[in-house]
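Large ribosomal subunit protein mL45
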Amino acid sequence: MATSMTRTFGALRNVTYSSLKNAEFPRDVRHPGPLFLPVRTKKRYFIPPAVGLKGKKEENPEIKGRAAGIVFRQQYLERPINIACSAGVFDPYIPPEGDARVSALSKEGLKQRTEQIRQSAASQLAIRKIKEHDSQFSTKTFAEQAQEIFIEAHNALIHFNRERLHSLVTERCYPEMTRGNRYKTIRWKFMESLEAPRVVHARCPDMVTKGNLYGQVTVRMHSKQTLAIYDRFGRLMLGSEEQPKDVLEYLVIERHLINPYSRWRLHGKIVPSWAPPKDPVIMTVAIPGPELKPWEEFDALNYEVPKPAAVQWNK
């Protein structure tokens, strides 16, 4: 084997550069594979990332992170909700029948008075709990404060001051006061108090969780007011600006007690079952008249109002 290797190296030693230059090689000999590949240096169009993921399997990044020793923070699906007011009136006050009409010295008036004394025990416990969170609360001065809130809220309503109205009424009372007032003109005025307002009922319930307290105080207010509502054409729909009426109202004022930045706001009204019905709203409708020629006159006595044709409605 050593002899064969010596012969090979001896033959290579005798090969010169000139002999290799003059030698003829076949020209059709090519490399089996290309020595370089064309590389695209710039993308001519945008490929969405989702196109390349169609055939691939989606991997859970949380499983990968746990395998790598990364601790993921727990994600809560619940969003924090701030309930600034309650959903309704808890244990509403039941006004005695004939209030503001029956004399306190009569037999029925004495019965009403004794019934109020019996129901005042729960109110006293609620007032004591309200004073724990609101040190400035007093039944003597709160009735006048509630009347001022009532007047300012209605003044903001007739001027359509939404920011001021939101600060004076709760989120439950706001849609009840503004519903149906679009394209209408409201004229309201507080004339005078016939009787001094007073606190007649108080409750301090909790909602959602124990300790989430809401203070609800019912104030009786007997006053004289004027109200007139006009439609978008300026026609009177309800009430009168010149004729005042005696109004007996039971206002529910509420506050979120555990919130130190909350305030007392108008929450609703209590309408007793024996209250007289409200005045009907006068709705005006434009009736199309006949087409008259310039030399003709309209005769309202002999004109018959056309009736609309019957239409079948399908849901």
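thats it. The CA atoms of residues 126 and 304 lie 65 Å apart. The beta strands are 185-193, 198-203, 214-230, 236-256, 265-269. bye
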